[in-house]
Amino acid sequence: MASFIYLWKKNRYAIITLFLFVCFLTGMLYLGIRSLEATLISYKDLYYSQPRPVRPPIIVADVLKADTGEFVPSDPPATWQNSEKGSVDFGHIDTVGNGGDDNVSVEEKTVMPLYESQSVTDPGSLGSLIQEPVSQISEFNGSEVSVTDKTKTKPINEPEFVSDPGGLETLTQESISEISENDDSVDHGTNGGDAAVGENTHPFVDNDISFKMVDNGGAVSLLKTCDLYMGTWVKDEECPIYSPDSCPYVDEAFSCQGNGRPDSKYLKWRWKPDGCELPRFNATDFLARLRGKRLMLVGDSMNRNQFESLLCLLREGLPDKSRMYEIHGNKITKGRGYFVFNFADYNCTVEFVRSHFLVREGTRINGQGNSNPTLSIDRIDKSAKRWKGADILVFNTGHWWAHGKTARGKNYYKEGEVVYPKFDAVEAYRRSMRTWGKWIDKNANPAKQLVFYRGYSSAHFRGGDWDSGGACNGETEPVLTGAILNNYPLKMKIVEEVIQKMQFPVILLNVTRLTNFRKDGHPSVYRKNSTEGKKVSTRKQDCSHWCLPGVPDAWNELIYTVIYRLSSSS
User: Each residue of 328-351: pLDDT tens digit?
Assistant: First the structure.
């Protein structure tokens, strides 16, 4: 011990100097590493800000070419045969009797694709003729065929079935619209299964409404000769499609009439685009087009609002309501984030997956040992594993980006392993949308999946926000004029920017403007049941979500219109 004290006294200045030098080197190394991280992040931002390669423009008018008889298949020419019920082209018929296939029913003039030799069983009285082939496509579902049967050989009076032999190539062709003798346009509208013509036969209001796939620098927006999203709300006494007390899938927060709202005029409005009419919503037809498919809504509580609306709309097409059920037996509540509703008669599901931001939420442990939330804006949400199997996806995010911690951005946003002490919420939203876009480009198949992004839904708070005394009670009429109708938030401009740079043709369901009108459509104070003599509190009001029936029904009518026209033109 004495020798140690002696050495310390003799060399203490050298030891202190060495200690300070080591501290200095350690500090410089730390600062260098942080500087390098910042430089790498800057280069990362620079990389993602550069123009990205995009697909060439997709113009339906250029690529949808009907076969006029010039098409020459590699197989022998098709054989047309006449039966008692009309002329039927089955592709390449086995005329020498090498085997038959009973899976094709000769009930209609059915134009089948001609890419593989097929054998069919003659139901009677066939005579062979040679005819140039006519091609048809299945654009929406890959190897399965959407059998669009346009017949004028006889009236469609009874439900009839056309089987899909499957195994066909995917092409694109312009649809041929024909009318049967009873003046009904006919569309089987299902893929890869039996389709009841009787279920899907109905007139369609068509004021020269033709969809076009328009290139926006690589993004595909669904437009029409009239813009679906520019228009106004018109009074319609046939609204709503379902009565407020008829649907068991509306949870308490959206059941305004059930919660005691005294007025009902807000239910009598229908969205009408300028210059054209939307087809009337047909729940049976929508379900037929969903046959064998999964439709999934992914997003925050606004998408749950839309999900409940869609369940109620489709329920109207079921004679036996018990044939629709949640497969886990769960009742819809805001506390649960995953629902799967099965429609047994159509072998299809409508699902909801909660994802507030579409990117990954997490936690970190701070210096005091407490757990704090984080948002990894460069990683997709954990629920993405559920998204992959869906045929039709409807995404949204937006309202949670205005909440406190998200808007402040302090020690919240994360990239890699770096949690930013302070980060701009708008830039975080942009990077999160890019992360979502990259996931869609990598994981979604445009030949088999349809992807919508549903735009921002407007809120209507007076005198404050959702957490600071904002109100909307007492509103009973839409806003029909004024500057509010042209409000277009920065979030939507960012969404458009991201979609334009994507490779996958995402359809932007741009509902922002049509929601600008509807200050009368929110639950306001009627977000909780007050019919049992309880006093309605006006302190906290919901001016973001929508009453059901209500505005989200129009969003689903627009989705129906898009699917209707896409499948009809296929």
Answer: 999 998 889 999 999 999 999 999
- Please state the separation of Cα 183 from the chain's center in Å: 33
Strands 507-509 and 450-454: parallel
Residue 471 identity: A
Q: Is 476 left (phi over 0), alpha (psi -120 to 50) or beta?
A: alpha
Distance between CA atoms of 204 and 186, rounded to whole angstroms? 10
Token pair belonging to 142:
């890959």
120 to each of 29, 87, 106, 162, how far by Cα in Å? 78, 14, 9, 13
**Predicted model pTM:** 0.63
Catalytic annotation, residues = 301, 542, 545
Mean pLDDT of 179-193: 35
- Tell me which residue has tokens 């328009």: 214
- Percentage of the chain with pLDDT > 90? 52
Name the pLDDT band for 12 (thresholds 50, 70, 90): confident
Helix (H) or strand (E) holding 326, with range, is strand 324-326
Backbone angles phi and psi of 425, in degrees to 5: -65, -35
Give the tens place of pLDDT for each residue, 377-435. 999 999 999 999 999 999 999 989 988 889 999 999 999 999 999 999 999 999 999 99
Q: How far apart are CA 207 and CA 191, in angstroms?
A: 27
